[in-house]
Write a structure and sequence with these properties.
The protein has 146 residues and is mostly helical. Helices cover 70% and strands 0% of the residues. It folds into two domains: 108 residues, no CATH class; 29 residues, no CATH class.
């Protein structure tokens, strides 16, 4: 309760709903920035989804406790709200990671990027001899041919 009062005192008092909405949007972007950056660097939406879910879940936990919920009820409500938020973040973050991660990341992170191995590059196994030469080719043989 005290922490929420401190946050309310530090938040600017806007006279319009538009001003509050814009401020809330910027605050949300600032809170999500570490998760989004980690998602772009790892090329996975999971870090941003985890940050969004944890933020929403922890806020929901506090909301339910203030309303008189038990710890278990608040934890359940926070877990559900956080999970739902993380699920809804999956779609936009997957798009951000795929669009930004493939093209633009190369401009910021120098060096070669790994390429997926072609199924045709895997050696055909005729026994254990290909498994011994596996380290020289850099690819693993198909399990179905061993």
């Amino acid at each position: 309760m005290q922490a929420q009062d401190d946050i309310d005192k530090a938040t600017p008092a806007f006279k319009s709903a538009t001003g509050r909405g814009i401020y809330g949007g910027f605050a949300s972007v600032a809170q999500m920035a570490p998760g989004v950056a980690a998602s772009i660097l790892t090329r996975s939406p999971v870090p941003a989804m985890a940050v969004a879910g944890a933020q929403t879940g922890s806020q929901a936990y506090g909301k339910y406790r203030v309303r008189g919920g038990t710890r278990a009820e608040a934890a359940t409500g926070g877990l559900l709200e956080g999970s739902i938020e993380a699920g809804f973040e999956a779609i936009p973050m997957a798009a951000v990671v795929s669009k930004f991660g493939k093209g633009a990341t190369g401009k910021f992170i120098p060096g070669p990027r790994p390429r997926a191995a072609s199924p045709r590059s895997a050696p055909k196994c005729s026994g254990l001899s290909c498994c011994r030469s596996m380290s020289s080719t850099g690819t693993l043989p198909k399990l179905s041919t061993i």
